[in-house]
Design brief:
single chain; 396 residues; alpha/beta; Rossmann fold; four-stranded parallel beta sheet; 13 strands; globular
């Protein structure tokens, strides 16, 4: 076995604290009264890697392999994901006294979205633990990523996707050799069917936060943000929030980096940006609730934001409150206007989910919630090229 020096020790329930073995395949907490997500834990005190040594490592998310869950490097399934660029958002007013605004462009990952990170980690660990078939409900990007990484790993993937998803997402999953099933409904409907089929056939369910390792891939965005900002964390991070794995992962990364002694206790204010079509997190946060209600008003151009009730809604809301953060709800007209402005002035075609952040930033800036001289980061989670069908149907 070729070691990766992973410092993974065990899995732990984020709610009741019950611990689970790193040697076994797990989904969520097995306590019937809990069923919360499991979080990978590491022995950071045994770490010998220094920040300076990172510059000699490949520019992928696996540069942080000690803090990722795979033990045998032979099981790492990679397509070169991670270490995406952070660029200034020039269309914002960046003159003296105004916020310094940047964006991290996750569209440059394999399969053109941030989902590549989570599925690289999840499929790698699934391979290491002997999984032969996987299943996922998806709004689009996660299905394509699972199909691609499963193809590279020699694992059979089953994809459950809403019929309203743009054809580009459906086509890529089929080309990657996955079994695609289109569902007349939303991602929650897909989830119910895929969960039933997983139980029936013995497939491993890699639904958002219903297995512990997609989160580990997503957290590498936080590691990269810290490293790319020379270990100085931005004041505000805006994140498009559907299932919420990315936000939870980034927050986890900052806590881990503090344990490593690589950053101090400073944290960014996290902002969840949602579509008005599915804004349960926003409504819950603004009304002081600790969990969100099911909310689905149908189609949105931002497919990835149509998540009526995230599985980890309580954790997302906890992150927002711990960080002193905020939430913003954006409609499709505002999303399309922002996408068009970014494309015309930045030369970058963002996903609708990412473009929603531009309008949210304007709302928060106008209300002075984002102050002068603050450093702000927007996470563009995917490429707009996959969404052309939605964009033209929205008469962009």
């Amino acid at each position: 076995m070729s070691q990766t020096n992973s410092l993974l020790t065990h899995l732990q329930c984020v709610s009741c604290g019950k611990e689970y073995s790193k040697e076994e395949l797990h989904t969520v907490c097995e306590d019937e009264n809990c069923k919360a997500i499991l979080s990978a834990q590491y022995d950071f005190h045994s770490n010998t890697l220094t920040k300076d040594e990172l510059r000699f490592r490949p520019a992928t998310m696996w540069r942080y392999r000690e803090f990722l869950p795979v033990f045998d490097s032979e099981n790492i399934v990679t397509l070169g994901e991670g270490f995406t660029p952070i660029l200034p958002l020039n269309l914002t007013n960046q003159s003296v006294g105004n916020p310094r605004v940047f964006y991290k462009d996750e569209s440059l990952n394999p399969t053109c979205s941030f989902k590549a990170r989570g599925l690289s980690a999840a499929v790698s660990k699934a391979k290491e633990l002997g999984v032969r078939e996987t299943v996922i409900p998806t709004a689009g990007n996660a299905g394509g990523a699972l199909a691609a990484y499963s193809a590279r790993a020699g694992i059979k993937a089953h994809i459950y996707m809403p019929k309203l998803t743009p054809n580009a997402f459906k086509t890529e999953t089929v080309l990657f050799g996955a079994e695609l099933r289109e569902i007349d409904g939303n991602i929650s409907d897909c989830g119910k069917l895929s969960q039933a089929e997983a139980a029936k056939h013995g497939w491993f369910d890699v639904s958002t936060l219903k297995e512990p390792y997609r989160l580990e891939g997503k957290k590498t965005m936080g590691y990269e943000i810290a490293e790319q900002f020379d270990w100085n964390i931005p004041d505000v991070i805006l994140y498009p929030t559907g299932g919420g794995t990315g936000m939870i992962g980034i927050w986890k990364a900052f806590h881990e980096l503090e344990q490593l002694g690589w950053i101090d206790a400073k944290r960014p204010r996290m902002v969840a940006v949602q579509s008005e079509s599915c804004n349960g997190i926003h409504l819950a946060f603004q009304s002081g609730q600790t969990s969100s209600a099911f909310k689905d008003n149908g189609f949105t151009v931002a497919n990835g934001l149509r998540v009526p009730k995230p599985y980890a809604d309580k954790v997302i809301l906890q992150v927002l409150r711990e960080s002193g953060g905020n939430s913003v709800s954006v409609n499709d007209t505002e999303i399309l206007a922002s996408l068009r402005e970014i494309a015309a002035r930045e030369g970058s075609l963002w996903s609708p989910e990412g473009a929603a952040l531009r309008h949210a930033f304007q709302v928060l800036r106008q209300s002075n919630w984002i102050a002068d001289n603050e450093t702000v980061l927007l996470l563009n989670t995917g490429s707009g090229y996959k969404y052309l069908e939605n964009l033209f149907s929205g008469e962009i």
